[in-house]
Specification:
- The complex is a heterodimer of chains A (105) and B (119).
- Chain A has 105 residues and is mostly beta strands.
- Chain A has strands spanning 4-7, 10-11, 19-25, 33-38, 45-48, 62-67, 70-75, 85-90, 97-98, 102-104.
- Chain A has no helices and ten strands.
- In chain A, strands 2, 4, 5, 8, 9 and 10 form a six-stranded mixed sheet that branches.
- Chain B contains no helices and ten strands.
- The chains are: A mainly beta (105), B mainly beta (119).
- At the A-B interface, strand 9 of A face strand 5 of B.
Chain lengths: 105, 119
């Protein structure tokens, strides 16, 4: 199975910060990475699809990028509503695999 | 609007089975796949497998092949997952999710079902 190594596992943040979370894939997964946001007791919310694209309704302060096997989610000018857990997902190869998650505190 | 409504929390005894449901609305049910995902505090999110809502064809993560059975009822636009031979390690929140953006897991998720296995 493809391993998605996500870092950091947790991060202390302040309002207005620029935050970057990274997932490193154990093998090439192309553009086939999604990012999800999850708040306590809620289902994951889709924030980035195919590595760099924003679904409708996602604020433009969220962005996704790729450099080789490293995939990043960046939040510019962090707002209070962005404090949550974030998960990456690769869907290039079956079984789909998630990163271990990043908790913004 | 697209909705996936899952059944309620389950409390089950070790060795028993549970069957949880995911009722879809707001889109042509048979045109999409439904995936199932397990979430625990220790293991994070794990992909269990998917089912084609149109053909009923399935594909399971090897890890869950003997644990989960996925089915659909097209007449009620509902997907089901049966978990068998339950152990405490099966205690988790289970989500269904619809395919989207060229992926078996996309933007639409159910609200999750907490399954607790305890004697």
């Amino acid at each position: 199975d493809i391993q998605m190594t996500q870092s950091p596992s947790s991060m202390s943040v302040s309002l207005g910060d620029t935050v970057t979370i990274t997932c490193r894939a154990s093998q090439d997964v192309g553009i086939y990475v999604h990012w999800f946001q999850q708040k306590p007791g809620k289902s994951p919310r889709h924030m980035i699809y195919r590595a760099t694209n924003l679904p409708d309704g996602v604020p433009s302060r969220f962005s996704g990028s790729r450099s080789g096997s490293d995939y990043s989610l960046t939040i510019s000018s962090l707002e209070s509503e962005d404090v949550a857990d974030y998960h990456c997902l690769q869907f290039d190869e079956f079984p789909l695999t998630f990163g271990s998650g990043t908790k913004l505190e | 609007q697209v909705q996936l409504q899952q059944s309620g929390a389950e409390l089950a005894k070790p060795g028993s089975s549970v069957k949880i449901s995911c009722k879809a609305s707001g889109y042509p049910f048979s045109s999409y796949y439904i995936s199932w995902i397990k979430q625990t505090t220790g293991q994070g999110l794990e992909f269990i497998g998917y089912i084609s809502s149109g053909s009923g064809g399935t594909n399971y993560n090897e890890k869950f092949k003997d644990k989960a059975t996925l089915t659909v009822d097209k007449s009620s636009s509902t997907a089901f997952m049966q978990l068998s031979s339950l152990t405490p390690d099966d205690s988790a929140v289970y989500y269904c999710a619809r395919s989207d953006y060229s992926s078996y897991v996309g933007s639409y998720w159910g609200q999750g079902v907490m399954v607790t296995v305890s004697s």
